[in-house]
Design a protein that fits this description.
With 138 residues, the protein is mostly helical. It is 74% helix and 0% strand.
Length: 138
């Protein structure tokens, strides 16, 4: 029983730790040799991408922890927060793509990505606390 619980937690954690922000993925996909990549507008757009990486990493443990501590009542605030953070990241990634010679996404593509990310965050936030055993005093 303990082995299966540990395995489930490790698999879920493995999937979640591989997530990078959309801004970081956009920067990684840009052509460094493109003249617009070294422009001041592009450098300005890329300057704050680290915020979304840090937020993405922290979001992976803060949301499930908050749901685990506060219970089901925290599900809606965590979901709304994840939607807001994903939206800010997608908008930053779109700005980076537009300023640095990449291909910005359409509104429909951005909306679909934000909805998918929010849904995955919600599922991860409800699965991880559900796999943690209830501790009862002896």
């Amino acid at each position: 029983m303990k082995f299966s619980f540990a395995l489930v937690v490790l698999v879920i954690t493995g999937f979640l730790t591989g997530c990078a922000s959309h801004s970081a993925k956009t920067i990684a996909g840009l052509d460094n040799n493109d003249p617009t990549f070294n422009s001041s507008a592009c450098e300005s757009a890329r300057a704050n991408a680290w915020v979304h990486d840090t937020t993405q990493k922290n979001k992976l443990w803060v949301g499930p922890s908050f749901i685990w501590l506060a219970g089901p009542v925290a599900l809606v605030p965590v979901f709304v927060t994840n939607v807001g953070l994903n939206t800010a990241d997608k908008l930053q990634a779109n700005d980076i793509a537009a300023q640095c010679g990449g291909k910005p996404q359409s509104q429909a593509q951005m909306s679909a990505d934000i909805a998918l990310d929010a849904s995955l965050s919600l599922v991860a936030g409800t699965i991880v606390p559900a796999t943690i055993p209830k501790l009862t005093p002896p």
